[in-house]
Design goal:
The chain has helices at 27-35, 39-42, 46-72, 80-91, 98-110, 125-129, 147-150, 153-160, 164-180, 189-213, 233-238, 245-250, 266-276, 288-294, and strands spanning 77-78, 280-281. It has 295 residues and is mainly α. Strands 1-2 form a two-stranded antiparallel ribbon. Helix 3 (46-72) crosses helix 4 and helix 3 crosses helix 5.
Length: 295
């Protein structure tokens, strides 16, 4: 594989007035992080740890496969029922609604690492990691970018009431802990709430955010894309394939992010299982020309 030099891009834009932190709006975000400290009081059990990991993986798949590959890039198709179930799971990850997520990501691909990119890596690590969505400038959904998705009223509802699913999911975790307590005394509702929702969600948030920050800074560039995207195997493992980010920027419409057999893409394997069950269809893959270019 040939080495490709780092691209030269435009400099960072100045910080606009509406790019200051919207402290009132991000109160739930701050509160969620502070709630992780509750683990000191509720403790941990094997049951709570197992549920936390499962909660992380299920919602991560909803984000990578549906929020990203399906909604943002239309890399495969699913019927409305399947689409809604995974959109709801994605919304429960507390990363805002599916239309907002897809619209911002489409803006990222339209202007990657330039002043018009919502989370340009040129703005520094913290901006690209999370600063960009903590301000008023990127709070609203750019609906003109997601007219194809906005025709589904159920997706519009999830987008408008983006806190409804996180609250419902948190309540479900508490109820699960209470239901399990008579059978599994080492856990209860509060412990399951903290580990199954709070800690799992915060871990999922920051793992996802690393694709905007770290995957534009650390890794290898297999393709000479006009941006800072990189392939990072460790991030790919943590994010079900999202770490093959340079691949993705070379052919964004591919449902498979790990283009080669040695690039583990758990999101793609999950989609193949759903396809075998008849739940998704028309999955796009990298072209032969692109595969040859990167070999």
């Amino acid at each position: 594989m040939r080495r490709i030099s780092k691209p030269r891009l435009a400099g960072s834009p100045p910080v606009a007035a509406d790019e200051s932190v919207a402290w009132l709006r991000i109160t739930p975000f701050i509160g969620l992080h502070l709630a992780c400290l509750a683990a000191i009081w509720v403790g941990i059990s094997p049951t709570a740890a197992a549920v936390a990991v499962l909660s992380y993986l299920v919602r991560l798949f909803a984000i990578t496969a549906f929020y990203h590959r399906c909604f943002a890039h239309r890399a495969f198709r699913a019927n409305r029922a399947v689409q809604f179930v995974f959109a709801a799971l994605g919304a429960s990850a507390t990363q805002r609604g599916p239309l907002w997520w897809a619209a911002q990501h489409r803006a990222h691909h339209a202007h990657t690492d330039t002043p018009d990119d919502p989370h340009s890596a040129q703005r520094g690590f913290w901006w690209s990691h999370m600063g960009w969505f903590l301000c008023d400038a990127n709070y609203q959904t750019p609906m003109h970018r997601v007219r194809d998705l906005a025709r589904f009223p159920e997706l519009r509802w999830l987008n408008r009431f983006d806190l409804a699913l996180p609250i419902a999911y948190a309540a479900a975790m508490f109820a699960l802990g209470e239901a399990l307590h008579p059978l599994v005394p080492d856990t209860d509702g509060w412990q399951m709430l903290v580990w199954g929702y709070v800690i799992s969600t915060v871990a999922l948030m920051h793992t996802t955010f690393t694709i905007n920050s770290l995957a534009h800074r650390f890794g290898k560039r297999r393709f000479a894309t006009a941006d800072l995207s990189r392939n990072n195997g460790w991030l790919a493992l943590l994010t079900m394939g999202e770490g093959w980010h340079n691949n993705h920027h070379r052919q964004p419409t591919s449902a498979r992010l790990g283009f080669y057999w040695w690039q583990l893409d758990l999101g793609w394997l999950g989609l193949r299982l759903l396809a075998a069950l008849g739940l998704v269809r028309d999955m796009k893959t990298p072209s032969k020309q692109v595969l040859a270019e990167g070999s």
